């Protein structure tokens, strides 16, 4: 179970990042973001999300004001579901949400 979730994170190159907006006080803010996890390689990739954010990006300002964040991944962001003949909206097409600071 755990390994399947790590694989979704590991092989995704896109995530949805949700924060508390500092521009729209009291509202959530989410956007798609490219995500890295080292090289696309079994021995170097660990399933730990890394994003690069410009100093001028809205996300950076949100992170500085409130470091709580949620990363949302879907196996639909990878080729797994398509290769298995699973619709991206099916519950069998795994989803992972990572929340923290």
Biggest beta sheet summary: 4 strands, antiparallel
Q: How large is the radius of gyration?
A: 15 Å
Low-pLDDT regions: none
Structural class: alpha+beta
Please give the order of strands in the largest beta sheet: 2-1-3-4
> Which range best describes the helical content: under 10%, 10-25%, 25-40%, 40-55%, 55-70% or over 70%?
10-25%
Oligomeric assembly:
single chain
Write down how many β-strands occur, each being a DSSP E stretch of 2 or more residues: 4
Query: Taking all residues together, what is the mean pLDDT?
Result: 83
Distance between the termini: 24 Å
| Approximate shape | globular
Percent in strands: 25-35%
Q: What's the order of the H and E elements?
A: HEEHEHE
- SS element count, helices: 3
């Amino acid at each position: 179970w755990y390994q399947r979730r790590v694989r979704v994170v590991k092989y995704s190159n896109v995530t949805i990042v949700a924060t508390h907006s500092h521009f729209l006080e009291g509202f959530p803010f989410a956007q798609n973001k490219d995500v890295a996890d080292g090289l696309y390689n079994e021995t170097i990739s660990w399933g730990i999300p890394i994003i690069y954010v410009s100093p001028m990006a809205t996300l950076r300002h949100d992170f500085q004001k409130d470091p709580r964040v949620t990363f949302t991944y879907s196996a639909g962001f990878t080729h797994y579901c398509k290769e298995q003949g699973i619709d991206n909206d099916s519950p069998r097409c795994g989803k992972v949400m990572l929340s923290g600071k």
